[in-house]
Amino acid sequence: VSSVPVSLSESLFCRYRGFILFLTFLFYTAYHLSRKPISIVKSQLHRNCSTVLQPTDLNITNNATWCDWAPFGKSYQDNYQTLFGVLDNCFLVAYAFGMFFSGIFGERLPLRYYLSFGMLMSGLFTCLFGLGFYWNIHSLGYYGFIQVMNGLMQTTGWPAVVACVGNWFGKGKRGFIMGVWNSHTSVGNILGSLIAGAFVSSAWGMSFIVPGLIIASTGILCFFFLVESQFLFTRETLTQSLIRLNYTIRVFVSQSEQESVETEQDSAHVDQTVNGAICTESTDLVEEHVEAISFCGALSIPGVVEFSLCLLFAKLVSYTFLYWLPLYISNVAHFEAKEAGDMSTLFDVGGIVGGIMAGLVSDYTGGRASTCCVMLLAAAPMVSVSMLLLCGGLVNGPYALITTAVSADLGTHESLRGNSRALSTVTAIIDGTGSIGAALGPLLAGVISPTGWNNVFYMLISADVLACLFLTRLVYKEVQGWCGCGPRMRG
């Protein structure tokens, strides 16, 4: 991406860059907001109906299951946790599979159109899940299909927004900027929990429909206002300036024709000089067109494989909390669905602080891998509900750093020799590999939880340790750089 020309108003550029940061923050907040309702609604789909006040006008044959929503209660009373795990994985497996292809599409399609389409379709499928309540649909196949389609549509978001932010911001304070910006993940989870919780006890269908309408609305906003790179911004701004300048020149030349021959010669000289300057400036903005990087080419970038595998296990932990924490709190602490959802937001509040701190520390030290490794090691003994704030910060800090600053660093790695079209593909590979872990975590939780919730936490601790092991080579190289034994590297 070309640098901003001197003639362009610096304040205008800075304001619009801030506006782009806000827009992309809003977009991915909506993405995560629309993913959260399923975790809140689970405790409403399968309830202990013996403790629920029975309506007098309802003929009840089974006091234990009358308030459940089939097929998650009445016919499948003993394995409802497995069914919830299947429902989660319909979304997460589709998301992981689609993510590897999403980056390839993102490199080749206009990001504005790609994001707008993805948000509109995500809104549609989120609403269709909620409409199952009003249409009285009790088919596992229906809800599973909706989850698969929604998972595929949600893959449009992450590679596109990271590529967009990477196009607008340099490497200087990338960790801090993206650490603040990446709080959209936790903000979206918090808002999704609160919105879903407001409707879950009365009409759980609205817990999906309202978030669906919100993400569809942001898709329309994206279509009209997103400028995906500095180059497009400067080109559009300069085009408007050139139109006004050329009009002024034509008026000036027309008036000069009525004056003396000497004046006409001077005006012609001025005209050539101005147009020469315009041509020179616009030439500087010509973007070098290079081919998008291949999948194998992106994998060969140093650090991509290690960070991808680390993210697999880090995301396994994060998404297990995302999808199962409210149900765990409801079952173990005996909270109502709304209260359990509200309490689960503490994990995401910690995630906001953790993401910012991880970005700050990695910017200061230049050690992306070391920052992630230390936080993951510290998180292992903290994996418990009694320490939700601290656990959320230590788990989501590395997750946020890898999916934002690390992805942007690797997508603009020096080995690419200036090829700026690798960012979306690299981001998709890293997040796609992480999404495999996101699919495995809730699935394993559904299988292990009947044997006891303690076993689920042992599984999460093991995943944290494995995430650290995959970063050992990169951490060793960073420590060598700090000790003067080698070049100081970032990530």
Secondary-structure map:
Layout: H1 10-35, H2 37-45, H3 80-108, H4 111-134, H5 140-154, H6 157-168, H7 174-181, H8 184-199, H9 206-225, H10 230-256, H11 261-284, H12 295-299, H13 304-332, H14 337-365, H15 368-379, H16 388-411, H17 423-448, H18 453-469, H19 472-482
What does this molecule look like?
Keywords: Antiport, Endoplasmic reticulum, Glycoprotein, Membrane, Sugar transport, Transmembrane, Transmembrane helix, Transport. It is a multi-pass membrane protein. It catalyses: D-glucose 6-phosphate(in) + phosphate(out) = D-glucose 6-phosphate(out) + phosphate(in). Belongs to the major facilitator superfamily. Organophosphate:Pi antiporter (OPA) (TC 2.A.1.4) family. This protein has 491 residues and is mostly helical. The protein is built from 19 helices and no strands. It is globular and about 75 Å long.
Broad shape: globular
Mean pLDDT: 77
Q: The biggest beta sheet, please? A: none
How much of the polypeptide forms β-strand, as a percent range?
Answer: under 5%
Find the structural class using helix and strand composition: mainly alpha
